[in-house]
Structures are given as C-alpha cells and as structure tokens.
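# step 3/5: fold
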Amino acid sequence: MTKLFATRSALVAAMMLLATPAISAQQDDGAPPPPKPGKPISAGEVLSGELNAMKVRDIKNAGKRIAMYQITSEPRRLPAPNGLCNLETGPETFQLVTSSDAQATQLKSFVGKAISVKVDEVACASDPGQMSEAVITKWSLIRKQ
C-alpha cells in the first residue's frame, strides 16, 4: 500500500513540475498588449490638444529667450517619409512654429486650454534643442474647445 502511495505521489509531483511552467506562461499573457501606432495625420487635417508654452533660448538670435508653443495630443503617425518619428506609437507633442507676431499673440491667449489647429505642414523634430517630438511649420487655428 505504501509502495502504491509513493508511486502516486511521485506521479503527482512530476505532473506539477510539468504544469507549473504552463500556468506561469498563461499568467504572463495578462500583460498589456504592445501600444498601437496612432492615427495618421496629414496636411489639411485637424490636430486637437492642450496648448503649452515654454521659454527657450533662440540659438540663432544670440540666446534671446523666446516663447515656444506646443500641443500635447494623442499619438499620431506622420505621412511618409517621417512615419512614427522613431517612436513606437508616433509623436504626442507637436511644436507650433509661429511665422508672425500675430500668430504668437493669438496662441498666448490659449495657453493651458484645449485648441484645434488645421495642419498644413508637419515633420519629425530634427534640430537640437527642439522640445517636441514633431514640428508643425504651417498651421491655422480653427477653434478653441
């Protein structure tokens, strides 16, 4: 009787050793799935998000402090050849390049608020010192939210 008990015990122990890795592998599947790339954005589309302002030193203007504006949004994919800007999901921060004092003044009143802009030209950030992942060089404010 004890021989039968010992055999069954050994069999149960062997089965547990084989089953434990399978159980732990199933538990690892509960990890969150990898992030999906953001929706694509191209010229003429709308980008919405919160407007932030930062003071940065202008390298081209003898280190003069200037305001830089950026929109924080959901991840977006840029059109080829920029793609995801070397990120898994695409950029989430977009620098708005102001081409005139009027545009800078217009943005200043919306800092900290949600805005929407029509994107005319967008590219991945490439210059040193840029604080955003992507740069919108041509845009127009369409509405505040």
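# step 4/5: annotate
The longest helix spans residues 2-28.
# step 5/5: archive (pending)
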